[in-house]
Amino acid sequence: ETKKKKKKKKKTVTIDGGDSKGNGQQGEQSTDSLVDAQFQRWFNDKGANTTTEQQLEVVWSFLDVLSKEFSANDKTKGRLDEAEPVFRRALEARVLESGQNHAKTLSCKFHLGELWKRQERFASAEPMLKEALQGQKKHLKPAHNPQTLATMCGLAELYQDTDRLDEAESLYLEALEGFRKQEDDHKPKRKTGASFRGLTQSGSLRSLMKQNQPEEGDQSHFVLHYSFLTSAGLVSCWQKQGKLEQAEELLREMVASQRDYYGDQHRLTLHSMTSLASVLNQQPHKVDEAETFYRLSLEGFQEALGPQHETTVRAMENLSVTLKRQGKLDESLQLLEQVVEIRTEQKGETDPETLLAMDGVARLYHSKGDLATAQTKMEHLLDLQQEVLGKKHPDTWRTQKNLGVIYHTQGKQQKKSGKA
After folding, report:
1. Cβ-based burial of 289 (10 A; exposed 0-12, middle 13-18, buried ≥19)
2. What is the torsional sign of CA 403, 408, 414, 420?
């Protein structure tokens, strides 16, 4: 009976999705296309022969799986085009079944806006996220419920990604205040031992927070998760604005909370430590404390992920740079030579990141006064850069200039030696 009614209605909803550049574009989908071929098998297993409302619940569950998958890491960006039709059909069907202001209709709008944001279709994503937020503020109670705050955070991220930092900051602060009120009502139990939950990709603290999605229906963990996500976004915004003291204070709160909730060895705790070290490192009088947090995060990553994991290698690079700033050249060099060895083994000598680490090693030998070794390292690097990047690439030019300085310095030393 339900199928017959749907065929008679033939209702459609028009969704303005825009093209890949964010230009407006009208798309029309019918409710008969609710079940897309890409999740036909999944739907047949869980949602066939049910009512329309139950089918929507099945689609909703699938959307939740999809949203977590495309948030997992940047390498899934290519799959966003596959996910978009499912999100569109779900929104269309939810509007027809429940109306524009139903909680899950508004959440569908949020998910679709988030997807467009990930595709950098900002001109389409912004009005969709605004529409979702306006509807949630008006129709969902309480006013600062977790779903509304999550949408607020998503819109703030869009503002930040489009360099509208003042607007982003304002929304982040409003969302964070709301989440902190929610935390008082939804105090989660300590969740140490959650470990890394299968996460293997490196990325910014904000993107990593997106990976660590809470379980469905887990309100207390949802609140805390989005509170951390909002904090990470606000920290990033403040760093761009040069507000390092505010960023430092909030990061210290995050590290303390995540240590208590996840434990010292959890990926998010360690990345928050890394972010705190980065902020401290930008303040000359706090470099020693930055070193401490870089060491803690490196030790944690080595234990949790292994010594050759990409995240561990980046932690080694961070610590090496900080040690160099402090004049601890021997330890800095030792770490960076390990990085070169690992990157060469994993990616080869001609990989851009390997070349960058090799450049750092050559410069450290130069700083230590070992000009002969610095010259050998830099000549080898120059050969690789000319082969891979070309003779006119800025990195190649810089290496030629540095090598010229070494030749000039050695020439002067040889002249002095000859006079003696």
Report:
1. middle
2. negative
